[in-house]
Amino acid sequence: MKLTLSGIKETSCWEAAGIKLPCYDVEKVAEETRKAPTWVHFGAGNIFRIFIGGLADKLIAAGELNKGITCVETFDFDVVDKIYKPFDNLVLAVTLKADGSTEKEVLGSLTEAIKAQSADPAEWGRLKEIFVNPELQMVSFTITEKGYALKSADGNYFPFVQADIDNGPEKPGAAMAIVCALLFARYKAGKYPISIVSMDNCSHNGEKLQSSIVTMAKEWEKKGFVDAGFVAYLTDEAQVAFPWSMIDKITPRPADSVCEELKKAGVEDMDPVITSKRTYIAPFVNAEGPQYLVIEDKFPNGRPALEKAGVYMTDRETVNKVERMKVTTCLNPLHTALAVYGCVLGYTLIADEMKDEELNKLVHQIGPVEGMPVVTDPGILSPKDFVDEVINVRIPNPFMPDAPQRIATDTSQKVGIRYGETIKAYVAKDGSAAALTAIPLAIAGWCRYLLAVDDNGQKFELSADPMVPELTKALEGIEVGKPETYTGQLKGILSNANIFGIDLYQAGLGEKIEGMFLEEIAGPGAVRATLKKYLA
């Protein structure tokens, strides 16, 4: 059983293994797509393959779409060479269910894989050919928020971005310059309309993408590479639209248990690979079942019937509300609390934390109890149903190999949105957030985590975070087991509105968090005792 176009023709083997095959002619769809692609996607990684690829597969199977997606990789070209081409662009999608069972399906909707290399005439020529085609409707992205970044913290362009600015549209190297150059080719070919859709998991993603591409175009205009008409084309949303979106589907790295299950079923060559760019990827993708994609319906050149595959098509304000609901109340704050306390309490699997009485109470208190009175209700999704699914189905799924250590990454960049927004809403409503208990407990837990000593007194490694050096320096002198070593070191952190979006002392929470933190450093077992006390 080989995951190739010829291999899936041996249908009886796949059926016997319980693996669903495409019900359409994959080769015919690929041929039609290559002639005149209508949907191009940048960022050929896991969430794209199983989620966005799965949407297209569903539409093709239902007769709602007769073309697949053209996949473009801008960063890690090994993904194309090792995961797409050897398997004829097929994907084995594995859904991890909470009862331990899996649903397995081969997707045939990813019809072509291209490396975005302007130095390779064949690859670059193919991309230009696609972009000058009037039928192209949408270009979507899952390249992470970092893919849109042009400047470093000092406000200067990254060296690779400056090189792209200096080299102009004929020799772009990084994603934003590549897309800008291809849109310039489309502009010159006839100013054809198109929609550029970020599906990355960040706030106001369409705005971020538009800003980066327009910035590149304006820099090129200054150097005489492009004309003012091109910048006008990019900033006219009747011609080039940048819809906002909200995406939600937990897609961990390929699990060894899934690989072994597929091998036992008889599927060959399923081993994950680690690419030269340190991408951990496999011919299969494993992910949770629940998924949400909400997109602003702004497509000047038409679009696939995405709503028939379960996508919520709506307006910008509603997209923003859904994103805010998820990030400030119903999912991300719960994940962050479990991440920091999980590291301190010795957990390595997020799902196991939901069996912990105190941690289970903590997330119930943060979301349904403290978050819900000030939640942003988007109207198209029920916040109560969403958070119930998160707490009762998604996070407890024991077959999702997700670790608190991974989720604890970059927490300093997240707490302002995940907790600060709810705190600000309480201040606006009541004049103070002093009534809160679980959210300040989560913040105290993060501060306790920053000491890098677990509840048994053993040291552990902090997850990557750009503020770790600054934060750990601020906490110098504090020793677990010696509460007297706390002499107010938290004050500078808790009053920092750049971190939390508000001075927590002015919000009525600073002293409360200090008190909780002081209890958590009393000695071994103090974190557990503090959780028990405040969640009783």
Q: What are its keywords?
A:
15 strands; 536 residues; 4-stranded mixed beta sheet; 11% strand; 6-stranded parallel beta sheet; single chain
Would you kindly provide a written description of the structure presented here, covering whatever features stand out?
This protein has helices at residues 11-16, 26-35, 46-61, 78-84, 121-131, 159-167, 175-190, 205-222, 228-234, 256-264, 316-330, 332-344, 350-353, 357-371, 383-394, 404-407, 415-430, 438-449, 468-474, 491-494, 497-500, 510-520, 526-535; strands spanning 19-20, 39-42, 69-73, 91-96, 102-107, 110-115, 138-141, 194-198, 240-241, 245-248, 273-274, 280-281, 284-288, 292-296, 312-314. The mean pLDDT is 96. Helix 14 (357-371) packs across helix 23 (526-535). It has 536 residues and is α/β, with parallel strands linked by helices. It contains 23 helices and 15 strands.
